[in-house]
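Hi L., both proteins are below.
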Amino acid sequence: MLSEALSSKLSRALRRVQRSLGEAGALSSSLLALSFAALLAATAARAQDAAFGSADKQGQAALIGILYDLKQTQQREPTKETERTYRTVIAEFLQSNWDEDILNRYFRVTRPVYTTQIFIPTINADQAPKAFGVSDVVKPRMWVVHYKGQVAPPEGGVYRFSGNADDIIAVSINNRTVLVAGRPDCLPPKSVWHSSVPDERETSFGDWISLKAGEVVDFDVIIGERPGGQFRALLWIEKEGASGRRPIFKLAPTTEPRNGDFGPDTSWSIWTAKQ
């Protein structure tokens, strides 16, 4: 999404120019306002396109993301999966210790994306196929994106992830599920995984994990949309004993987000990704 800070700066700059033009420049001011609105719209569109990641790795270590369409096979033939069986496929994948052979039964997009965080505020679900360049062949429902990589914390300690999603987000460390969050009607049974603490404002909290500074682990995340419509996926990180609001889990510093739901980056919240 468009940075609130960037939007605010652009708005202030526009007001300064409009004041300097005065009444004599009313027409020019109106044209400038229209250009500004077009700029905001274009910038917001580019931000939404990049919400799932970038096709360009840009030289930095990141998670690689692959889109799967559960509605069709690798040969582009229809599958038997329905919205009712969507959660069954998710459950099977998690119970298999995140065996990619489960997802490879379905249409796998060949072009990956790369990201350093899972921060996707509410957007239209059709942005996922668009981000992977397959909006012409993948309808915006019953899809799953699998992100993976090797990561390490900058400090030793006990950590946990928390997530909020519409429809689902799940995390594994070394092929062990440590978090599942999302809409109850899209989640796998609690026998697959369940939180030991109650949800807060539709956010679920994962298992605590003890890690050493620089300890490299296999890190996997899936996000997914079942019926289509709107989509959202947010992933936070917490460290036991730390105070303040939870920061977004990141592999590189960014300027977003800045609101009451997310804390600032800390010395332990930005992990290292391995190439």
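That was the first. Here is the second:
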Amino acid sequence: MSECEDVPKPCQVADRLETAQFRVQDLEFKQGESMDLSGVHVPLVTPFDSNGVVDTKSIAHIAEVMIANGISGIVAAGTTGEAYALNFEERQTVIDTIIKQVHGRVPVLAGVGGMSTKEAIKQAQLALELKCDGLMVAAPAYVLPTPTELANHVTVVVAAAKLPTVLYDYPARTGVPFDQETLDLLADNSHVIGIKEASGDLERIPMLNQRYAGRIEIVCGADADSPSFFNAGATSWIGGMANALPKAHFGILDPATRAQAHAAVLPLLEHIESGRYIAKTKALMGLLGVPCSSTRGPLAELEPAGIETLRTLVAQAGEWVPSLV
């Protein structure tokens, strides 16, 4: 595995987190400040080498490619980054590599998941230790907490880092939504600034706009349905396909080009959303000049026939899907 200079050993990071869980005031950078969520933020893919090891050189390269393509921010160790398949030491390596490569040019959010509050706290404190700009916190998978339990979970996790936090509403993956009862308990938390809405329920958009205006910003978490968010006033998008389609994402975000860009890439968006999202996104990046096709089990790389389908859809999309490099 490639290594970056001055990266603390994972065991050292873990030890510090265990012994100084809430000493956030001792760190050199400011906490509790809000951040600008506008624009397109990409949950960066995690490349692996031929031996299945996290490839830090490729992570740094992809981060640089994203910045060169105008991306507004990065989510490190998110769902598209296969964070669920990373151990704690690998998570530390991924986040630290991104932070060092970005070097403050765009904000970096760290994904926080896990299946227990203790695990999520540890992940949040890792993000703090590595000087991330914020968190993206999902519900604990598989656990099925009640709305009050979920709100308490988030409150404790956020308190452990005191960083601006985007909630990640993805009940198809976690089993529970950030429903109105939960959000009512979190809306006045000064660190909770937004919600990535990936539930697929477009009826939630007006509810979120009306009930939480000025408290929780709506962040688009859809692909094919993304115009519904922006037509309703959203200005932020955290989208996994932005790894491969940054130009199209910015085109859809812009009212002047929204209809044209969306129509051009809609078949591609729908195809990737239909299944094997990460494998297809990584394969598409390869077609566009950034090889990173390896995935972690149980996910498998996209087969040649699938790559040819992507190639056809790229050709149909025309100018909205240029090379990444």
